[in-house]
Specification:
Layout: E1 19-27, H1 33-42, H2 44-52, E2 61-67, H3 68-75, E3 89-90, E4 95-96, E5 103-109, H4 112-126, E6 130-139, H5 161-166, E7 179-188, H6 190-194, H7 198-205, H8 226-229, E8 232-233, E9 239-240, E10 243-244, E11 247-251, E12 256-265, H9 268-279, E13 294-296, E14 300-304, H10 307-311
Antiparallel strand pairs: 1-5, 1-6, 2-5, 2-14, 3-4, 7-12, 7-13, 7-14, 8-9, 10-12, 11-12
Helix pairs in contact: 2-4
Length: 316
Amino acid sequence: MSSRVPIEPQRVDAPLTVAATFLVLSITDVPDAIQKVRSSLASIDGLAKNVSIRDLSANFACTVGIGSDVWDEVTGLPRPSELHPFQEVKGKAHTAPSTPGDLLFHIRSERRDLCFEFERQLLDLLNDSIKVVDETVGFRYFDVRDLLGFVDGTANPAGPAVPAAILVAEEDTPAVGGSYIVIQKYVHDLKGWRALKAEQQEAIIGRTKFENEELDDAPTGQQASHKTLATIEDENGVEHDILRDNMPFGSPGSGEFGTYFIGYSRRLWVIEKMLQNMFVGNPPGLHDRLLDFSTPLTGTTFFAPSASLLSSLDPE
């Protein structure tokens, strides 16, 4: 039997779904644009209910992220302590670019039509107060694999470990219940990737391709796998997780194949350290070999406030 209520608003830990839309917007300079955005964000819960009621079993959810450059204007509230624009990460071979974006809507459902309808109504509501920066439609690929053929998201926290990894707590009172978000849109060189032997691919990822089993870490100081470089520990040796809701996207007809990375974290520095490891290398100079086949086109940071904070933004 399906649930009698939709997923709660701003549930950053909503289930992985078959379909997702990643919508990045910028706020225009038309008169009253900020007021229109504030009012629209405050009414997101009602808009989501209007769409999700069509099929309560479809796990419809939308998470809203607000960018650093517009946080003060849009919310009028204290800034989350770590919120700042995405910082370019430049290694010897590859660069993670910083790209614009004021608002993020992470829309997901088991049905593509519900994502479509929500986005349509949302853009009608926002009207000329915004401009679309990027719209990417993602899909589930077989058993949650990326287009490189590997299972994606195995390292995600599970159960009671999820809130502790992704929701800000007492360390930053004004931001309690919210989460930092980093997005990057990667395109893959599938021809080059497929030219590698399966064993070479597995060494780069750090897992077996078919069974999804972890491989042993390389000795200290040698080339590390993607799995190892994306595992972050603090100075006390405590490991810090993030929640990835990555989705494949692309079009065989246009030769586009990619992965939309979206990471939720209680601590922004964890994702930033991960990107430093990947692009600069750990040790420096030994970058993530996955980047030889996956190129980031975007890089933007947002903060997803709690549902109660979002609903309080209505200027009326």
